Amino acid sequence: MNEQSEIFLSGSTTEIEDLGNGLKRQMLGYNEELMAVKVWFAEGAQGYSHQHRHSQVTYVEKGEFHFTIDGETKVLKEGDSCLIPPHAEHGAICPTGGILLDIFSPPREDFLKE
C-alpha cells in the first residue's frame, strides 16, 4: 500500500459508508503504517466475530459495548478502550447504540476502495 489520506479531513465532508446491519464507517486518516476509523453502531448492532493480522486499539467514544476478545467478554463504556492483538478472534455487540474509534497498524487494506 503506497497511498495515504489527505492530511486534514473534515468530519462533515468525509464519506460515511453504510455497512448495513446498523453499522456505518468513516475513514479518519491513514498511511502505510497507521489507520484510524470511526464506527457507528445502531442500538443492538453487532460487529461480527473475526480476526486479522493487524494490531488494533479501540476506544469507546459513546455507548456501551460487550466486547469478546479471544473468548473473554468485558463490558466497555464511554472512555474505555481495548487492545486487540494480531490474529485474536474478536467481536462486539452494542445494546445501546454507540460510536467506536478503531486504530489499526498496519492499515486495513480491505477498508480502502479500489
Write the layout of secondary structure elements.
Blueprint lengths: L16 E4 L2 E8 L4 E7 L3 E6 L4 E8 L1 E6 L2 E6 L3 E4 L5 E5 L3 E8 L9
Antiparallel strand pairs: 1-2, 2-3, 3-10, 4-9, 5-8, 5-10, 6-7, 6-9
The low-confidence runs, each spanning 5 or more residues with pLDDT under 50, are: none
Rg result: 14 Å
Number of strands: 10
Largest sheet: 6 strands, antiparallel
What is the residue-averaged pLDDT? Answer: 95
Total helices: the number is 0
Q: What share of residues is helical?
A: under 10%
End-to-end distance: 11 Å
- Strands ordered across the widest β-sheet: 1-2-3-10-5-8
SS class: mainly beta
Q: Would you list the SSEs in sequence order as H and E?
A: EEEEEEEEEE
What form results from the Cα inertia axes?
globular
Strand content: over 45%
How would you characterize this protein structure?
- The model has no long low-confidence stretch (mean pLDDT 95).
- The chain has strands spanning 17-20, 23-30, 35-41, 45-50, 55-62, 64-69, 72-77, 81-84, 90-94, 98-105.
- It has a six-stranded antiparallel β-sheet with strand order 1-2-3-10-5-8, with no helix packed on it. The protein has a four-stranded antiparallel β-sheet with strand order 4-9-6-7, with no helix packed on it.
- The chain is an all-beta fold.
- It contains no helices and ten strands.
- 0% of the residues lie in helices and 54% in strands.
